[in-house]
Amino acid sequence: MTRFSFRSSLPLVVGFAACYSPNEPIGGDGTDDGSTGATIGTETSNTVGSATVATTAPTNTTDVTSATETDATDATDATQGTDATDSVDTSAGSTDEGGALCGNAQMDDGEACDDGDEINGNGCNNDCVESGTVLWDLGYGDSEDPGTGAGATDIGVNVDGVVVVTGATGSGGWIGTFTVDGMEVEQPVVLPGVQLSALDFFSGGDLAIGYFDAMGVSVRRMTTAGDIVWSTTALDTGGVLGSGGRGIDVDEDDNIVAVGAISESIYGGDIWTGEFDDAGFQGWSDVLDNVQPVAGFGRDVACAPDGECVAAGRIDGNGGPTAGGHYGWFRRFSPAGVTIWTRTFDEPSGSFDVGCVAVDVAGNALVIGTAASDIWVRKYEPGGDVEWTVTYDDPNSDDDWGDGCAADPDGNVIAVGWEMRDDLAQQRNAWIAKYDGEGTLLWMTTHNGVDNVDDAAVAVATDDAGRIYVAGRVDYDNLDGGAVKLWIRALAP
Q: pLDDT at position 485, please?
């Protein structure tokens, strides 16, 4: 989905169903005793830092600008998190329990901070709650299908303020709906045998769903109760494994714009981008025709308020800027599907992957990916020039991964993924960072599961109040055979 929406730090858990990440397979089983109140893990929050920003625009269709973000100082967060029955008031000018006015630039009882302004997201929010504070956590695991992993694939907030999450259980696709306070709106929907990849929303509230299908790029319109309105596929003449819809977005006219792969082999093939109207009939389409052994994968697509859409993907193989490697591909379309510009990014090592694209209120394209072993975030102006690029390398310079992104109503960028922390006797930790519109790091937080194994944030969305909703997975190695849980977290702006 695309993540234009008006649409740390601590341990906690709840009763857990299960998922698949389009960028990375999930393993382990989904056993769970259905109990609540277990510990999810520990958090690390980082002080507000800065980024080195590159502002060089590309001179042709290939740009190689890069920059390195300054690591923020690690600190252990000792704040106790809240569960789904609790929430933090995010109203401006609030009065805390002690009766003191929040915003008087004095630390009063019950306040975590007070910087005297009414600005959210600058370290201390206008309700005197620290930026990035965990508001609630939820987890779902599959108790009936041990040996099967779980996790989220996408998350969004609809026009009614309902948080919707897609993922998978051992039996297939999974859709959950929640209030902004973390309470279930309806019982989660399970879709047997379906691998969900992405979601967005029609103006009336129905879900637009992308899913993996060996026959081509497939999309579906559903109600939040799980009823199918229609399903359709942009057919792949080859019909081989590796085809499927990766990313979707619903534009201002309620058309679905989807991106995926029309495969020539199991390794991928042509990048397909196209439009379906609100009744499921196919409109314009665009195919990036690669010649084997070059293969392309469409990863995500995002549409701006003016109807222009940006697709993002990865191209592999010989013939690209890096022979035999991977490079990023980004294309902006008019509302009629005409190409406005195309950009590529060639990481010198030849190792690059795209995780997500979003658009902000001004129509800028925000992309996140992985360059070599670092998280990579870039902002393209509507005309295709690079405004800035930042990268993140964990303190141990180990492998890191950028997966999900969103733009909030103020033009800030939220990026999520995971970082590797073998230096702390941990493995992959979920990683969440917020940057302002100029590429400066506002805050960053990580989550390490209780068993120090593989945890990841894969998708993120914001609401019109700037609250942040993250979906991913946490890994439990101490359960019989191991287990992966679908994980949802809400954070203060």
A: 82
- CATH 3.40.50.300 is right for the domain spanning 41-88+129-491: no
Is there a contact between 165 and 154 (Cβ–Cβ < 8 Å)?
yes
- Buried/exposed code over 222-246 (b: 16+ C-beta within 10 A; e: otherwise): bebebeeeeebbbebebebebbbbb
Both tokens of 239, joined, read 């019909």
Q: In the Cβ-directed half-sphere of 302, how many Cα atoms lie within 13 Å?
A: 29
Do β-strands 62-63 and 339-345 pair in parallel, antiparallel, or remain unpaired? parallel
pLDDT at residue 213, as a whole number: 66
In this predicted model, which residue has the larger pLDDT, 485 or 386? 386
Strands (E), 372-482: 374-380, 386-392, 400-407, 413-420, 428-435, 441-449, 456-462, 468-476
CB contact at 8 A, 169 and 21: no
State the alpha helices, DSSP H only, in 37-146.
none
What ranges do the domains of the chain cover? 41-88+129-491
- 216 beta partners: 235
pLDDT tens for residues 54-70?
Answer: 433 333 333 333 333 33
pLDDT band (50, 70, 90) for residue 261: confident
Query: In this structure, what DSSP letter does residue 424 have?
Result: G
